[in-house]
Amino acid sequence: xxxxxxxxxINALVRRNILTMKPYSSARDEFKGEAExxxxxxxxxxxxxxxxxxxxxxxxxxxxLAAIKHIDPKQIFLGNGSDEAIDLLIRAFCEPxxxxxxxxxxxxxxxxxCAEVNAVNVQPVLLTPDFDIDLDAFPRTFDATTKxxxxxxxxxxxxxxxxxxxxxxxxxxxxxxxVIDEAYIxxxxxxxxxxxxxxxxxLVVLQTFSKAWGLxxxxxxxxxASEDIISILNKIKYPYNVNIRTQELALDALENxxxxxxxxxxxxxxxxxxxxxxxxxxxxxxVFPSDSNFILVRVKDAxxxxxxxxxxxxxxRDRSRVTLCYNCLRITVGTPEENDRLIKALEEL
Length: 349
Ligand SMILES: *Cc1c(COP(=O)(O)O)cnc(C)c1O
Description:
By secondary structure, this protein is of the alpha/beta class. The chain has helices at about 10-15, 15-20, 25-30, 60-70, 80-95, 110-115, 135-140, 165-175, 225-235, 245-255, 255-280, 300-310, 335-345, and strands at about 75-80, 100-105, 120-125, 145-150, 175-180, 205-210, 220-225, 285, 295-300, 315-320, 330.
């Protein structure tokens, strides 16, 4: 990997049209205080509170979240799932038909989907056979068009954390944005990269309410980065991207962190048990290590096992056509009863 000189300021990485554009200014942007009568946003005066537009910047949620994550609320962006943040990052920093993102393979599919929608080139680099970053392959792949490197840790669909030292190496040497997707970090032994934001102005950390927090149906994703990066995302997002109900329920969840922590403990306990049971099956070739709430397992014939489970009304993810994942199933850790039914079914295969 080439030696990085000085890090350019973030605005030098942003697409010019995004940097110079004037953002939409909503009624709720213009007036921020407390009033008694609101006649500024053409809302229906009945059916309170959902007759009102939500807070465009979700300050109540961000304040609570900031305290938990030990970060400034101004360094948080909230979106309609982390998928919104992925899309906005690509749109803000990558010029269509010109720039590229670098992804490791196999990984989460949304990075390349969002890139392709925006006519942004995708530069894939294969992970090592033990699913870690191949540092030697990076400099052969990225070039002057590479604006963002996406690293998913713990990685989906392999389940493991990427090596912290290698991620730091990428952060030190690459001049563009390094986005670390930590959707599964609550299930991992390693700490979040949020604590490293102060040191690396090109670092972006993604987390989500969809996994450990148990709120996939609400669609709420978190993005942590420098104030410069966050203000660019705020500039181009839809004005009211997170609805009132989602903000209320997220706040409830954040005020009861213990509930989430107890789920995580239980899921990790069940993960250990499920891995042991999977290892004993005659069809199992290899159970891969997991720092997430799912397990990647290589079996003798993954499509056949998938089909058999389907007939037993149990759905897992057949990942056998994914790079490096031949004959692999990705199995989410369920309740003890669900995991027992899965194992029982597989024992009878
Ligand atoms: C599940 C998942 C997400 C979550 O996406 P949301 O849009 O927040 O639901 C993000 N990244 C990875 C790698 C995931 O597996």
